[in-house]
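Narrative of accomplishments. A recurring question from our advisory board has been how the design workflow behaves on a single, concrete structure rather than in aggregate. To address it, we present the structure tokens for one chain from the evaluation set, followed by the sequence designed for it. No filtering or post-editing was applied between the two.
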């Protein structure tokens, strides 16, 4: 984030002795003459207009005012002597500065009614034009805050139903686990075997893809590009687009507020669509058989083609007292043991799945 200064505005403070609102730059209450105490904070005025007076801006930039250690009077940061009691200010304590006092009040403040005579006064007035009474502060326009909408919660019934369904699901899963782990042994005879060997053929194929221009492969053909935000950074850069937040006013400790906004910078770059050659499966060659001597297919490859994934699957059918069971060996060495008519002990679960086989000796 980069903090940008929009300008400077007047603040005000309320005299704790008499309740009068004073201009921020006034160090003494214009009504009762009391100095502004160190713990009385500056506030925003009802409508903030940017100060054009360069001298005043320079004073605001000079640093927070200091309070005289002897009489408490506020003095500018640059003063050596208290304007009130002439005391030395080298040990004087600087006012707090840098606090956010609120969103920049740029718009006209609503009119305020005098609580004594009822006369309507401009929102920026501190005293009634008719009777001179002190006016209440116009309510500043509330800064628009993003409203976070809370997602509607689930109703109680819906929650109960959901828990019910989840519960049933868990029970069903447990039942399946228990049933499938319960096994019995049967003796089966090999009735038949089968195998399938498949080989994928890959070819260099033009494939459309998207990426930033500097990441496009050298041999790719660029179809089109457009400018898109590649990253957002804190500092300005040539060609970057500045995005700034809502301006807000910060207390400088001098009775003048600094209106600032936080900005960041969107850096654009070319995002391109291109076609590049990639290996893609374009055919699958399969050999099958019902013997114990499987063979890999040997396809002839064209230009820009290569062998891709190879898969082998085996299947054995057993007969056990008229009932047929299917078993799938994991490897060729296991598969070749299932000679026709050989006898095996099958571990079979409740769902008739063969969990394991061992030779019946
Ligand atoms: Zn006062
Ligand atoms: Zn003093
Ligand atoms: Zn009045």
């Amino acid at each position: 984030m980069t903090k940008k200064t929009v300008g400077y505005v007047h603040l005000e403070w309320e005299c704790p002795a008499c309740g009068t609102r004073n201009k921020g730059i006034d160090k003494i209450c214009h009504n009762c003459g009391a100095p502004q105490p160190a713990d009385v904070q500056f506030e925003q005025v009802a409508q903030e207009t940017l100060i054009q007076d360069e001298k005043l801006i320079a004073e605001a930039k000079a640093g927070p005012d200091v309070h005289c250690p002897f009489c408490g009077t506020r003095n500018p940061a640059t003063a050596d002597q208290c304007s009130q009691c002439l005391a030395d200010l080298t040990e004087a304590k600087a006012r707090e500065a840098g606090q956010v006092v609120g969103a920049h009040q740029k718009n006209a403040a609503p009119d305020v009614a005098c609580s004594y005579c009822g006369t309507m006064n401009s929102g920026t007035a501190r005293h009634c034009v008719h009777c001179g009474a002190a006016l209440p502060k116009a309510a500043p326009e509330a800064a628009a805050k993003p409203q976070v909408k809370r997602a509607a919660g689930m109703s109680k019934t819906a929650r109960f139903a959901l828990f019910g369904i989840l519960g049933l699901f868990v029970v069903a899963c447990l039942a399946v686990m228990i049933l499938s782990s319960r096994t019995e042994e049967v003796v089966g005879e090999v009735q038949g075997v089968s195998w399938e060997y498949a080989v994928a053929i890959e070819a260099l194929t033009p494939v459309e893809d998207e990426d930033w221009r500097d990441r496009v492969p050298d041999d790719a053909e660029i179809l089109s590009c457009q400018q898109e935000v590649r990253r957002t950074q804190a500092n300005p850069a040539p060609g970057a687009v500045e995005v700034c937040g809502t301006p807000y006013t910060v207390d400088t400790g001098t009775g003048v507020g600094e209106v600032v906004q936080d900005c960041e910078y969107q850096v654009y770059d070319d995002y391109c669509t291109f076609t590049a050659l990639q290996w893609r499966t374009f055919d699958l060659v399969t050999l099958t058989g019902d013997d114990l001597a499987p063979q890999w297919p040997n396809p002839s490859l064209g230009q820009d083609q290569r062998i891709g994934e190879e898969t082998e699957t085996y299947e054995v059918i057993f007969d056990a007292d008229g009932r047929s069971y299917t078993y799938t060996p994991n490897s060729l060495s296991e598969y070749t043991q299932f000679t026709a008519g050989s006898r095996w002990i099958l571990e079979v679960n409740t769902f008739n799945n063969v969990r394991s086989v061992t030779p019946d000796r």
